[in-house]
Design brief:
This protein has one domain: 3-Layer(aba) Sandwich (UDP-N-acetylmuramoyl-L-alanine:D-glutamate ligase). It is built from twelve helices and twelve strands. It has helices spanning 8-14, 40-52, 67-73, 94-100, 117-129, 139-144, 148-153, 164-169, 178-189, 223-236, 241-263, 270-281; strands at 2-5, 29-33, 57-63, 78-82, 84-85, 88-89, 106-109, 134-136, 158-160, 192-195, 201-203, 207-210. The strands form two sheets. Strands 1-12-11-10-9-8-7-2-3-4 form a ten-stranded mixed β-sheet, sandwiched between helices. Strands 5-6 form a two-stranded antiparallel sheet.
């Protein structure tokens, strides 16, 4: 088993330089499917995480009843409304999504989406149709845990970002060696697994990174949404999937450590972490 402990030097070597001749289309066109009625913060944090980590164009599709809220929160993202059923995405959103997917470099599904049969139908179809890298987080994991064939059958990279509860729902073992269990699940599902927690594990089943950054002040709702936004941003900018995941986890934790130093672990928020990203990545 090859396992590397992430370091700032390794991450800086992996992150791409900004092309002085580049334009917004050169730094990744990414699509986020996030949010539902009552869970508007998840979508906004994911979008801000993507924007603050260098994505060129961020498109955020949300249920139409929360469109105004997200549009007011987000100046730089392209927010657009999608058909919904009871505050969550409905299958009627698929025609519009099918026209957008071919234009995208990477996709994030899950934060704040909620769980419902129509949401599951949307996610299954999107993952089957999109031929680029996908990050599946939060409710995306919960919706697809019963449809693992969709994950196994994808020919493009899929990155799963479970905490321990979601890890177990996917079939992962919570007993025994934590690294080995993550590697076994990655092999079984043919995915990259980011097993979140103290010293997060990032693995494709053969190679493995362990992350030393982060602190207990990050254990608050919304922190994972910010991470998924950073991760899809790095994918859109062209990093290889395993390295994009490793860099995102390290950067997320390092920004959280800077917030803890400045604000303390009790009062820091995921929004503070997102606003720390420009200073960390400068």
């Amino acid at each position: 088993m090859e396992k590397r402990i992430l370091s700032q030097e390794a991450v800086w070597e992996l992150l791409p330089d900004r092309d002085p001749w580049g334009h917004k289309g050169d730094f990744g066109k990414i699509l986020l499917l996030c949010g539902s009625r009552g869970y508007t913060g998840a979508a906004a944090l994911a979008a801000r995480g993507a924007l603050r980590s260098g994505a060129g164009l961020v498109f955020l599709g949300v249920p139409e009843s929360i469109y105004v809220i997200e549009a007011v929160k987000l100046d730089e993202a392209v927010v657009f409304p999608l058909p919904e059923f009871e505050g969550r995405l409905s299958a009627q959103a698929l025609p519009e999504l099918m026209t957008k997917l071919p234009q995208m470099d990477a996709l994030l599904v899950g934060p704040g989406l909620g769980r419902a049969p129509q949401v599951e139908a949307v996610l299954r179809t999107v993952l089957e149709s999109f031929h680029g890298p996908v990050v599946v987080d939060a409710d995306g994991i919960n919706c697809l845990a019963a449809h693992k064939d969709v994950l196994r059958d994808r020919t493009s990279p899929t990155i799963l970002t479970p905490h321990d509860g979601e890890f177990a729902r996917l079939g992962g073992s919570l007993t025994g060696d934590r690294v080995q269990a993550a590697m076994e699940l990655a092999k079984e599902l043919c995915c990259i697994v980011v097993r979140k927690g103290h010293r997060t594990i990032i693995t494709d089943g053969s190679r493995c990174y362990e992350n030393p950054t982060g602190n207990p002040g990050m254990a608050v709702g919304g922190s994972g949404d910010a991470l998924s936004g950073i991760l899809v941003s790095f994918l859109g900018q062209g990093l290889a999937p395993l390295e994009a995941a490793a860099c995102a986890v390290w950067v997320h934790g390092a920004a959280g450590d800077r917030c803890a130093e400045a604000l303390g672990q009790y009062g820091m928020l995921p929004s503070d972490l997102v606003e720390e990203l420009p200073r960390l990545l400068k």
